[in-house]
Amino acid sequence: MNDVLVKATDLVGRPVVTLDGMQVGEVKDVVLGLGEATLIGFTLRNPGFLGGPMKETVPWRSIHAVGPDAVMIPSVDATGDPEAVDDSDAHAATEIPVVTDDGAEVGRVTDVVLATGCPPEVVGFEIEAGEKMPSSGSRVLLPIEAMRAASSEAVVVPPTATDFVHDDLSGFGAAVDRFRASLEGDER
């Protein structure tokens, strides 16, 4: 994986600009659809320190790129009304328990990790490791493919998923690649 990885919460406050350089707002909140482990989109706020919320939103399918300094959309037409990112399965992506198939608590979701390629994609969760993990209390990264099911109640992963956690973004891409390779090996 050669894309730059970023935590979704790091996007809060980033300018949202069109391809021709017009700023349409700033990212206010990131909305995650847990059922499919995808981002639904962003709510927007007016630019600046005291910028209030805007009615317009940006659906994830309208994101052209996520860069180090801005989120890019093709044009102002890519923004939508609040229902554009409304989904019955949409949740704030934090404080959701992560458990294994056999019921062991792994930790709690604290953030979502994105690969900023074109198009950007959700590649993992940042979790606060639970008491049964060797890294208890610290934040670790878990590949999204490890997720078997998710709701606002819990994210369910196989027990072997904990073998692929990583403690920083710089090495997480390799952990995702290793996990994907292990899945391909299981299919053979």
Distance between the termini: 22 Å
What gross morphology would you assign? Answer: elongated
Percentage of β-strand residues: 35-45%
Q: Which CATH C-level class of the largest domain is it?
A: Alpha Beta
The count of strands amounts to: 14
Please tell me the total number of domains. Answer: 2
Q: Tell me the radius of gyration.
A: 17 Å
CATH topology of the largest domain, what is it called?
Photosynthetic Reaction Center, Chain H, domain 2
pLDDT averaged over residues: 80
Notable traits:
mainly beta; about 10% helix; Photosynthetic Reaction Center, Chain H, domain 2; 7-stranded mixed sheet; elongated; 2 domains; SH3 type barrels; about 190 residues
Characterise this structure.
The structure is a single chain. The protein has one helix spanning 169-187, and strands spanning 5-7, 15-18, 23-33, 38-45, 53-59, 65-66, 71-73, 90-91, 97-100, 105-115, 121-129, 139-143, 149-150, 155-157. With 188 residues, it is mainly beta. It folds into two domains: 9-91, SH3 type barrels; 97-187, Photosynthetic Reaction Center, Chain H, domain 2, CATH 3.90.50. The strands form two sheets. Strands 1, 9, 10, 11, 12, 13 and 14 form a seven-stranded mixed sheet that branches. A hairpin with a 5-residue loop joins strand 10 (105-115) and strand 11 (121-129). The longest helix has 19 residues, at 169-187.
